[in-house]
Task: structure prediction
Amino acid sequence: MPLIVQKYGGTSVAGVERIKNVAGRVARTHKDGNKVVVVLSAMSGETNRLVAFANEASEFPVGREYDMIVSTGEQVTIGLLSLVLKEMGLKARSFAGHQVPIITDSQFGSARIEHIGSEAIMRELASGGIAIVAGFQGVDTDGNITTLGRGGSDTTAVALAAALNADLCEIYTDVEGVYTTDPNICNDARKLAKVSYDEMLEMASLGAKVLQTRSVEFARKYNVPVMVRSSFTDTQGTLVCKEDIEMEKVVVSGVTYNKDEAKISVLRVPDRPGIAARLFKPLTEAGINVDMIVQNISHDAHTDLTFTVSKSEFKRALKLVKETASDIEAKEVVGDPNIAKVSIVGAGMRSHAGVASKMFDVMAAEGINIQMISTSEIKISCVVDVKYTELAVRVLHDAFELGKEEVNEER
Amino acid sequence: MPLIVQKYGGTSVAGVERIKNVAGRVARTHKDGNKVVVVLSAMSGETNRLVAFANEASEFPVGREYDMIVSTGEQVTIGLLSLVLKEMGLKARSFAGHQVPIITDSQFGSARIEHIGSEAIMRELASGGIAIVAGFQGVDTDGNITTLGRGGSDTTAVALAAALNADLCEIYTDVEGVYTTDPNICNDARKLAKVSYDEMLEMASLGAKVLQTRSVEFARKYNVPVMVRSSFTDTQGTLVCKEDIEMEKVVVSGVTYNKDEAKISVLRVPDRPGIAARLFKPLTEAGINVDMIVQNISHDAHTDLTFTVSKSEFKRALKLVKETASDIEAKEVVGDPNIAKVSIVGAGMRSHAGVASKMFDVMAAEGINIQMISTSEIKISCVVDVKYTELAVRVLHDAFELGKEEVNEER
Result:
């Protein structure tokens, strides 16, 4: 009998009426002859309500007590879904993190799963029951309640699927799957039938917020097939899985963009060993994440160094870099928040040459100046003036023929 | 160093501002050189909110899943109080029922405490910390979350005080203590400095809703001194403790009343063995609690049988009794919901004669007809027409001189 893990997010369980819809889908999956494990988030809005209490109680509400408070929302929804399923005549049992148990480290607020005990859930499934598990939470080896950080329920679901050796992990959300690009920008954006873990990781970290990055890493590590789909329709979603031969034929799977970054350039830096380290150390110490870094070859023993940071940290970063720049005798520091990062992602790039030059050609033809370039094995990112974002996405989506019906589309 | 358990009810923790007030009191008790264990209820209104969800999810929301849901309110308040205390620079740690652990049986919704592990809390106290424990909840030996029933936080506090061998258990509530009678009826009602467990039990079950009955039973069993006091003032409260010689000198400690009962009389029942059993069996099966039962000596092999039930169950009970009455050939069944039970309670009754006749005299002098009488070692209850309730309470309060300053009043 196949074992399916289904995860429903906060909008899918916002209120008892919606929980009843979820129960209908769970019951159908169970009736179709599957063993079903359900992972739930808190009702949307509930975690914010609890966080507001914590903020009122403490200036820096973090750590063990914060997790004690914010983990209660999931405990409510799992109890409610179990009640509804029992009312429908089914056997169901809720599991808080410590009852599974989902053992984590003690990094309160962003704990990592270390081990999942499968015995109690397997017993419930073997007796014909449905197991309803609280997402987002775990317990450390001292019995303290921990949370996995925002969006952690995706990770709970994938980790459970791995631990239970499930046949499929379904992530129910408010979109129908993963698209070739943002449908708000390209009206011929197409839902992908399949996408590889690596592609999904690049897309997620580039701004396509469908699945939490950590959950995709988990899925890749344990080879868990993940189906992203909508809880409001019956449409087939997007399967995130291991790369296969069909996927390699597709050069580019999607075009993504990110407007949340800003660019900082340090001009005419003396090109000596240790300069980059000195420049980035204050940023690291201030907890500022640096994304793209580009350094060109030097002229006259001087070089230019450009990098991007999150827009919300731009001002702080600029101030820190200006302080360091005078120490290391750089000529000038220039900041620019009006940029966007446009990227193409595709597993097929590994075996196809000429993808990058095609990308540059297409953008040049539209007169879009490329300010920075960064590449990985399966993606190419260009920083451009923010005003060109939509234009760049559209011409790239067209050029790589992403709007066309995919040959190996599955139904 | 003395160990004090403090329990704060729902109105005392309704909102973060009030939790900060509680924190102030806890901090003062700690600073005064006591080890402090705090037991909290959920914010007032919160449990009702959760119950409303459960009622929407299921027609009969009971059992394991219901407890999973309604136990979350206390988890929020203990986390918040811990955050506030830490913000004040104190060491504090919250404990859910399963973390203490408070081991109960598996009677979900009305579980009974079987064992409390004191080790984790003692460790916290030994390190200079304050232990904040969720009231109302426990865990069974299979790791299921259980609840003790409404008002169960009092029981949690007293049971913890017993397990930790505490010097005092303080119950903070919205009244200043236990009074000689309802101050709304007698304006010279006086707060008692001390009351014995037995007196408190009679008072609680007779309608003086200050402490949950089960918590008093627990306190008596393990000889835990309990101080009932207000969380909104600094006034000394009422100490509920073992009966002492001073208490025996006081014949009557209080006058209580209960308007929530109704009377049912079965007239001219053939006086045969087993008749009473047949009469009450259908009520027991329907889950209807019978309070007072009075049966007089028989005349002509017939007797009259009168008993009281809760007003909310009066109609159901009357219907059932009428059905049985014809089977057992009783002449008539008469119901009367317009009654009140007025009682006097006092440990001194054990050693003082004439208390009952004084009570009857006082009521007769006012023309109050007594419909039923029931007595225990330390209380005498009379059922009267409901319209005489306040009058009866006042004349009894006067007659037993309860408004006067107590000789052994403690300050």
Notes: Residues 16-31 of chain B form the longest helix (16 residues). The interface with chain A takes residues 16, 19-20, 50, 53-54, 56-59, 61, 64-66, 68-69, 71-73, 75-76, 78-84, 86-87, 92-94, 96, 98-99, 143-145 of chain B (CB under 8 Å). The mean pLDDT of chain B is 91.
